[in-house]
């Protein structure tokens, strides 16, 4: 008689009893996260996101890869709704969802440009708003309207709410955006100011996906529907180790750094990005990056040697222990024409404004896959 030898079945994953996501305690940014101690202590556990929804009427960020996010957008096209696209003034090129209209159908799009608090107080708001609309159209977006705001400072949130009411006309409102654009912060402001606390926030699945939808009732009968943040690999914030994010994601307003450069001089932004001024008259360049990121200046002929010897030491981030995780730098040569004002941008880092109209040849060295290039000046 043969022994009945069978492969043991894998235990089914434990699931959050709020949204149904598989529970896990390794990745805070992914659906189903719960601290390990809670997972071990409680048989029926809520993921952290559902816990905060249930007990604090507050949402936290959850991410989705681009393929899952596009399936989600396809579902939005089948509804009659308003789409609120939150973008990041610190990284417009990296946070705009290009081709959004192809996926959301005829539903109108309200573009909200967040993190206004990072820009100088003397910024001309009307000119900035016009710039935002031009950048959106260059990236294939045709928003019905655009609004500037700072979710962190609660500035302009009333204008966002008023635009939502006017454009939605009582329909549901889907909020979309990339990671780290302040989407959760803005939604939590809207909940605090305009939420209907007599009705509970609810969680359900998007049809055809494993992503959960948080439905947030507002006082006028509408619902905000929060979506996971899309992860774009062309942003520096998705390439650097998590511990380095504090150096490149600005928490405080920019302190513009202006450098008078001769040709064949180099600026290092930590050990992450290198900017070479190759040819042109002596001129000034202004860097708009996180105040926590150290900038080092050297001669072009010393740049390779300095980078090899000091990356992870003087040139940080990344730290020495994170060097192996970083992709190699790729060189991009860019020519700024005479009589042109241009920003040299690096998605997820910020930008460098060429203040002269004399023209220049520059080179950027950025991690493989990170988007960089020239654009119309913002400020």
Describe the 3D structure:
- This protein is of the alpha/beta class and 379 residues long.
- The protein has 3 domains: 35 residues, no CATH class; 176 residues, 3-Layer(aba) Sandwich (Rossmann fold); 139 residues, no CATH class.
- Helix content is 23%, strand content 27%.
- The protein is built from 10 helices and 19 strands.
- The longest helix has 14 residues.
- The chain is globular, with a radius of gyration of 23 Å.
- The chain starts with 35 loop residues before the first helix and ends with a strand.
CATH class of the largest domain: Alpha Beta
What is the total domain count? 3
CATH topology of the largest domain: Rossmann fold
Provide the succession of SSEs: HHEHEHHEHEHEHEEEEHEEEEEHEEEEE
Determine the fraction of residues in helical runs and give it as a percent range.
10-25%
Number of helices: 10
